[in-house]
Write a structure and sequence with these properties.
By secondary structure, the protein is mainly alpha-helical. The chain is built from 7 helices and no strands.
């Protein structure tokens, strides 16, 4: 039998995906609006980053601004962004991948994967980066969704005997994309969070869906 092309089921307009995107958009929308009406616009954003960003220094003896900030920042950083374009890029990816994830593991599974990937992104940044620059953005969680998706693609290709070359090519493309963005952003890309989120997503998918649950 000839190898089968690999395609994925998807569910559009999943409430879990839409609500998560809306909640994630809210802080940046508020900060942007404040920037248009308040003379202290930069102060609002600096305060949000001080309280919600991921700070490596807090794991190295810095005094937290509030109780449990060291723990909270492993999640809160994913709800802050460096601007509307940063937010837009991440949320487009969540909307594009969310339907695939929900179709495979349901809405609760999607939310759990997203949360674990965000934590994995923060852990990757903490372990691999020595930067004292604050880290914000949902890209760690986004790369977790990508990691799960790519695991399922590998799983399906293995199951149906489809060639693996397209999978490896897409993974190489992700690496090249990160290198290009790192150069364009003068080294300010948190690739460590991308890697941590990706590995968390792959591990989650491997544990939760060790075999095919539907025909892809």
């Amino acid at each position: 039998m000839a190898p089968r092309n690999v395609t994925f089921q998807t569910r559009t307009n999943s409430p879990a995906v839409l609500v998560l995107v809306a909640i994630t958009c809210l802080p940046e929308i508020l900060l942007t609006l404040l920037g248009t009406i308040s003379p202290n616009a930069s102060q609002w954003r600096m305060t949000a980053i001080a309280y919600g960003a991921f700070w490596n220094g807090l794991l190295q003896g810095w005094e937290p601004l509030y109780l449990f900030q060291r723990e909270a920042m492993f999640a809160s950083y994913a709800f802050l962004h460096g601007g509307l374009m940063h937010l837009l890029g991440n949320m487009v990816a969540v909307l594009a991948l969310g339907g695939i994830v929900v179709a495979r593991i349901g809405q609760k599974g999607f939310l759990l994967l997203y949360a674990i990937s965000a934590f994995g992104g923060a852990a990757g940044f903490a372990l691999l980066s020595g930067s004292e620059t604050p880290m914000v953005g949902a890209s760690g969680a986004v790369f977790g969704l990508i990691g799960a998706w790519k695991f399922w693609e590998w799983q399906a290709r293995q199951h149906f005997g489809s060639p693996m070359r397209p999978l490896w090519s897409s993974l190489i493309g992700l690496v090249i994309l990160n290198i290009v963005l790192w150069v364009l952003l003068s080294g300010l890309l948190a690739w460590e969070a991308h890697l941590g989120g990706f590995l968390a997503g792959v591990l989650f998918a491997a544990i939760v869906t060790p075999t095919l649950r539907y025909r892809v």
